[in-house]
Amino acid sequence: MRVYHIVKDELEFAVGSILYPRSYNLDDFKSKKHEVEEALENVRSNYYPNFPSRLNCLFVCRNLNDVESWSLMKSDIYGRHFKILTLEVTTPVHWFSAQSYNEYFCDIRNDLNQACKEYWQSHTDTNIDEMEECEGIITTPVQIVAVQHASICRDIGLKIID
Q1: What is d(CA 97, CA 10) in angstroms, rounded to the nearest whole number?
Q2: SS (H, E, C) the chain
Q3: Which end of the chain, N or C, is more open, meaning fewer C-beta atoms within 10 Å of its C-beta?
Q4: pLDDT averaged over the chain?
């Protein structure tokens, strides 16, 4: 299966290289992101311990439409220019809808604990095409099969440069 991962433009990656899951530290997140990730991890460990931790994983997109959506949301972190890594995955990808926690993060809703439960409850291996704000979690190393430069603009959308 091929999936996509977004990285900062200044980072270097080569086709054929192995990409390893990242370990995130809650202390590295800003206050609201810290609050959300801590709540997601608490709900996971208490109610869904069989699911992988978001603190030790690689986040992926299922297609270029998702890359566009996520790059718009992450443009304050990655900037307008970034790289899209195409990854070959031979192990399971855990798919979730991030809509509930994104709504909390954007102050559309105020029930963080329920938003986190909805995130973990949204897990599916079959209905990913029907998911809003879909994100995948991988916990194993994967091979990079393509590296593309891209840019994002709210007026134009995703543009693959090469």
Answers
A1: 29
A2: CEEEEEEECCCCCCCCCEECCEECCHHHCCHHHHHHHHHHHHHHHHHCCCCCCCCEEEEEECCHHHHHHHHHHCHHHHCCEEEEEEEECCCCCEEEECHHHHHHHCCCCCCHHHHHHHHHHCCECCCHHHCCCEEEEECCCEEEEEEEEEEEECCCEEEECC
A3: C
A4: 91
Query: Taking the domains of the chain in order of start, what are their residue ranges?
Result: 2-160
Q: What is the mean pLDDT of residues 97-121?
A: 91
CATH 2.60.120 fits 2-160, yes or no: no
Of 56, 124, 118, 131, which Cα lies nearest the Cα of 93? 124
Q: What is the pLDDT of residues 26-43, one digit of tens each?
A: 888 888 888 999 999 999
Longest Cα pair distance anywhere in the chain, in angstroms? 44
Rounded Cα distance, 5 and 7, in Å: 7
| Cα separation values, 50 from 105, 135, 154, Å | 25, 18, 38
